[in-house]
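Blackboard transcription, Thursday session:
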Amino acid sequence: MAQNTAEKGSEENLAVVVVIGADRPGIVAGITSVLARHNINIVDIAQTVVRGIFSMIMVVDLSTGDIDLPRLRDELAAKGRELNVEISVNHIAVFRAMQRV
Amino acid sequence: MPRIFTPEEIGEVVEMLLFHDLDIRSVTLGLSIQECSSHSYADVIDCVEKKVDAFAKRLSKAVEAASKKYGVKVVTKRIALTPISIVLEPLARRGLDKAAEAGVEIAKSIDAVARRNSVDYVGGYAAFVHKGFTPGDRAVVETFPDALAATDTVASMVNVASTATGINVDAVNMVAPKIIELSRETPKGVGCARFAVMANAPEDNPFIPGAYHGLGEPEAIVNVAVSGPGVIEAAVKRLGSGADMRTLHDYIKRTAFKITRLGELIGREVAREMGVQFGIVDLSVAPSPKVGDSVAKIVEAMGIEVAGAPGSIAALYMLVDAVKKGGAMATSSIGGLSGAFIPVSEDWGMARAAALGAITIDRLEAMMAVCNTGVDMVAVPGDVPWETIAAIILDVMAVAVALDKALGVRIIPVPGAKPGDTVDFGGLLGRATVMNVSGFSSAGFVSRGGLIPPPIRRLDKG
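(Written on the board underneath:)
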């Protein structure tokens, strides 16, 4: 049920959300509540320790949502400040460009 | 849905962006102003101002949009214009004074436009005199000190040598005293940071002050300069001291691939947003005065105690070669200077090495054989004779012509300064230790004037 004009599941709508910080209760709930509020689907989620840094990585699909990527970044950044974690939001094309030949 | 990227892959990219200062150093819009050439003083100024204004607005908007879309920082926005000497040509024929006045007025008006539209630099106050002068060229060379002293964003370049034609010593002898004049017209000589003397200046160079819009270029084009020394330094450090040279080279190559890809992605998006052609990615790893954003620190991470120490040429050679090979795999749109930059004050590690005495003008001259810098952002005492500055320029031009590559000189005579003094130029320009310059005279050589003939390599071209 795509609300945005771009095709659902197309890579144009995918963003990567990375949350980095010290582990504590409420981080996942805090971040996912922002996504749920805007009806953004989580395509993939992984929690991992990369080179000693705790991180949560999500691939999200904005095609069902009511918000564009720059505004989502602003909202998640505000939530990140609240939770005392660092959050980055990048378009999936960045990873495609850098990690695939 | 299968996992698109592993957490490792995503973690690596995000680590580069967040912790190793991976960003786009500059998106540079090349813009033709050839149509502004006119016999009318008012028309020339008006035409250039209107055109730059219209495109500056579009550039700022497009860069902002691309940066927000991808979550990648773009540090500076620049515009590179057709060499001003060309649009001044008709006026210059009516008298040098009129053209000179128009040149400075154009500089002032584009400076105002740039600042209004948050464009960081405008290049193209340029002249090509590697074989001789037209009246328009003369107007530019006469006025670049005034044009730069009266502005904050305008950058100037004079190309005095090429592999095809040799070195115009008369032009070097005109430019060298002008560099001293410029240093006296701006605080601490800082205006000289926006002026370069070049050999073989490429038409699509996105880096200031060498950037200009070449005659072979289309109406408007987007060129990109990437950054990322911090990313390469981190990769080298991660590899550890046990890795042999080939492994090290391979690692740098892989990292350069990723950096270049990011540059191309952003460049293409800005070009698409603006509705203009995408040009090139300059593969050069561009440093900044920030700690952790230094080419010298890569050399040091390879195992050299302080950049400039014996082994530095080999380390820099390996770095540049790996960057070129990784970059060439990453994009087919290569161009610009595509080497490695070691501007002394602008690179934190180079500035430190200069303060420690490991980097001297002699070492820079050795290093330019394997990179595309030359003598860049080097502060010297303000009382160095112009003939010595001319001779330093000639040395760099000779290497550029002999090796058939682009090299430049950006030298800053600091009024009142003595060797060993520290000068802070502020912001991206960084802090420099004033370097010692040989006290032996070269005046008898440079005063001969004339042209140094092109190398035998010229005949390879027919």
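Lecturer's comment: The mean pLDDT of chain B is 96.
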